[in-house]
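User: Please look over both lines:
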Amino acid sequence: MSVLGHKKPFDEALAQHQGMKKLDASDRGFVRQVCATTLRRLGQVDALIDHCLDKPLPKRAEDIRYILRLGVTQILFLKTPPHAAVDTAVNLADVYGFKPQKGFVNAILRRIAKEGEALMAAQHAGRLNTPDWLWQTWCDTYGEETAGRIAEAHLKEPPLDLTVKKDPDAWAATLEGPVLPNGSVRRTGGGSVPELPGYKEGAWWVQDVAAALPVSLFGDVKGKTIVDLCAAPGGKTAQLIQAGASVIAVDRAEGRLKTLRDNLKRLDLKAEIIKADSRTWRPAEPVDGVLIDAPCTATGTIRRHPDISWLKQPGDISAVATIQQALLQAAAAMIKPGGTIVYCTCSLQIEEGPAQISAFLSHQDNWIRDPIRGDEVFGFNDWLTEEGALRTLPHDLDEHGGMDGFFAARLKQAS
């Protein structure tokens, strides 16, 4: 209800829920799985519920849909024994003031238990779980077939990707996962992240393989000064430091900066950390490069954050696009002659990627595109656009479990 009713991010809603704090780790994990799966499959779940209703739920009883959603998810997607899922839902109806509707909840979920599998088999899962406006933008940008592959990729639970400081093969063996082409270690097993080997020692940090690509586009950064704008939580800052750069990490939110400081402390890495608005802050002297990991709608990370599908609206794109353009203009004022900007977002929306670069270049005579080469993305030439930018999609690396959708472009100041 906090996510769908009050538009609160899922992770934030869970962290603030008092009831979660009273549960042991196993129960917290199960609650998280139920809620995340409900969000991931929400379109399907609601279609199944509606199929079983003789008439729409009255407005005063619409909140009972939340209970039905949890029950349907447990029965069909988590394979909870139907009697247990039904009993839990009926008890929730009683606890949350729907005692007169207990029989209704029981009847709907028992019907789902009998007919749900057949009904689900006839559904277009990816399409149903994608809001209409998102589906249309992806069809317009990538074509309907690719839009379908993107939507299907969002239905899969993502693996855990780790960027390791050194010796990825050894850590892959320890963490029981393969080494991906860029050197990331991918773990498919469960377990609490802080309890995994190497976490406390600062041997690695969590970072999707797609998010690990933009830093490499700077090339050799040893001895160079790089500004990381909107730096928290610090994965790319850590990459730059590890590669030998002197890093100035800028972010305006104190809470996010605390996370960045904590992460760098655990990793035993050091950066100059600045609390400031990246749009107006300037370094004391020009720098060699600026990384812009711009605020965005994050529609490329829906497989990790299924709430994004239901939280974001079309108007959010124009709001963040204004910020993105301001960050590009700010970065241009920080660079030495011949310096480099790497701009990236974890969005699938064209307005937040290619359109931003085109708009920037149309107002900057002394900046040019610096096309990314295939060897810089480990030979995955299909990740490169005609303009020489990087574009990954959630179904890329599907044989390894997929990746986040990312856009990155490299810009060079003309000498």
